[in-house]
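Suppose a classmate hands you a notebook page containing two proteins, each written out with its sequence and a corresponding row of structure tokens. How would you begin to make sense of it? This section walks through that situation. The first entry is reproduced here exactly as it would appear on such a page.
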Amino acid sequence: MAATAGVSLSTASRVLNGSSRTVAAEYAEKVLAAAAALRYTADASARAMRRASDSIALVADDLTTASIGLVLAAMEREARTVDAFVTVASTGGTPPRQLETVRMMCALRPRALVLTSSTLYADVLEGRLLRELLDYQREGGRVVIFGDTDMPFDAISVENRASAVPVGTYLAQTGHRRVTIVAGAADRANVSDRTVGFIDGLVAGGVDRADIRVVHCEVSRQGGFTAVERLLAGGPLDADALVCANDAIAIGAMSALRGAGVRVPRDVSVTGFDDIPLATDVTPRLTTVAVPLARIGQDAIRLALGDHQERRRTTESGELMVRESTGPRG
């Protein structure tokens, strides 16, 4: 219905359900024309459920990653303290799917929407996603974004670049001079920022930029495994450290190294980012950057259910955790 009329779900709802909020005549005419063409009939039981529910909707790029799993678990724990619950949906990180999913979730009238994505900008899809979110907010909902954004909502972000610098600095200080960065997908802003930070730290520590190689891969365990397999197919590994954009990539990389008889850290050091639980379960334990993912999930719910009027922005930093997957060189 809303798509046929070319308006947001909330605008269509106001016209069809007799809301007291004014809708411009041209949009009202489009909605009524679409309703007639589609032979729309209002559902009385659905109308009775128009009040906001006790759900908080999480809209994420990918629900299969360990890091988002930690965020989601913390959100669920916090929501239950106020008798709310969390519903989830995945978008694959594509703007059209983000818009479609947000529209669907708004129609279910959750108390709040939490969106997680590496970047969410106001001009995406010519501003249609922003307009949908603003309509939802005007109807009494609250929007929280976990990721980098210029949208006018509460937001939590991670200083990916600054948090990655200590990894490069530490490797440089421990004698590593030939480094390959397994950087994940080039179009993912969070892992791209980490790559820049790794390079900043390495160069500041005395590593020649010409001795830093960057390879891209899928942001997953399989992505790390495949990337390192390809590196090894070209002959002996020309690196004394593999710096991975997240822990899943690093764990895949370590598996590929083990299969090829390359010893970690004796032959090559490996680092990750995020500090997921598996980082301390693998052998050797993974040197990584600990991001406070549980606190981020908790804070997202507190922002979503808060009654503050001013926009709030929080930035989190990671902490380098040195473990057995790295060792000194020279």
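The notebook's second entry, a different protein, reads as follows.
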Amino acid sequence: MEAGVQLYGSDTYKNDFGLYTTYAGPVYVHAPGQCINWWGHIDTEFKEKDKDHCG
């Protein structure tokens, strides 16, 4: 399982990855007034969103 977040347009990211049974994270990146990319996966299911939560 993994949870990750990245400052949009940057190589700066944080993630938490492990053999968890309930949840991964929390993970944070300081991004006032900017957009982030986020992602997560459980087993083979992967979801991501780029340029999200802007402002």
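A careful reader of the second entry would note: The chain has a mean pLDDT of 94.
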